[in-house]
């Protein structure tokens, strides 16, 4: 029970009162399973005070859109500039590379405080979370000094070129080639499921630079421009009617050998750094968005006069308990970090992915059910409501980033020590 769930007369029904500005379970006085150090508590106060003085009203309650929203672009740019000036971009990067060197605990604290202030904690996207860690871990000092500053400033915006039509879960089977020509690579091939293509001016990709090497070797991790460089994006329209992904075609695309990270033919280990960041990066903070979504649904239920319906309350109780499970799992990772661990225990990334992706699918199914017939009505030009779009978007969450089935195999084999599934057609 948290301070937000009680009053002088004792416990209150958390669904009977107006949703708090910051969600129940993560409020100002909520107890925590973590004993934060005085330095960490001081850092929380610093973030809270800075946000109180600098968070603009025009960004309160704004959710960063998945696709271009022209009326939000200027506001988001202004807020991003403010965060950059205050050195609140790329905060987990080491200070010598322009970051603040924040620990996992401090990043979690920062995200919670931005959630409390109800303003988006903007980042530099894939450049910050995926390219940056790979460059910092594997690049030369010259590459770091040249590649990292434009990410922090927002000059370089990256999209990802990993998956291919026949190389998704088995990424090492990729066929895109890179042939050395003087001091450049000439890249030809195709990628798919390129997210963020509509705003990117650069791409990080994997290509095969040694066709005679075993498939996990002979692969290089390359950065290059997408502008006037033989890169063609063909948007893939999703069920929502929006094109957030694309097919990507490379035709004699040029990349400098100076932008090969980790050296030629050594890209697989660099890619593993990127994939580790992709799958585990938000485990300690994603509950903030889930709680905000939960209270949005509670508001919808209240407006429809369904708040006292026992069946509805059971569904909401299930959703809330799942979000709290996700929150405490994340706090467990933070506690591990706080005690000197890595937060990357066996199976953590896989179990987190299974839990949140399956929760979000079920949560939006509940929302659509509660909307009743309204769930079937769309606006002019296929204009979807919030819950309709969330329902369609979450259909893919148990597929991308590693399917739920693959993640369960990882847990079974690497954590529980169970034998691998037999090959198709093989003996059982």
Automatic annotation (TrEMBL):
Cellular component GO terms held in the UniProt record: plasma membrane
GO molecular function (one): oxidoreductase activity, acting on the CH-CH group of donors
Organism name: Actinophytocola oryzae
Domain Acyl-CoA dehydrogenase/oxidase C-terminal: start-end pairs: 266-416
Keywords from the named record: FAD, Flavoprotein, Oxidoreductase
Domain Acyl-CoA oxidase/dehydrogenase middle intervals: 159-242
Record-given protein name: Alkylation response protein AidB-like acyl-CoA dehydrogenase
UniProt xrefs under InterPro entries: Acyl-CoA_Oxase/DH_mid-dom, Acyl-CoA_Oxase/DH_mid-dom_sf, AcylCo_DH-like_C, AcylCo_DH/oxidase_C, AcylCoA_DH/ox_N, AcylCoA_DH/ox_N_sf, AcylCoA_DH/oxidase_NM_dom_sf, Mycobact_Acyl-CoA_DH
Protein family: Belongs to the acyl-CoA dehydrogenase family.
Cofactors, names only: FAD
Classification via Pfam families: Acyl-CoA_dh_1, Acyl-CoA_dh_M, Acyl-CoA_dh_N
Annotated stretches, region: Disordered: 1-37
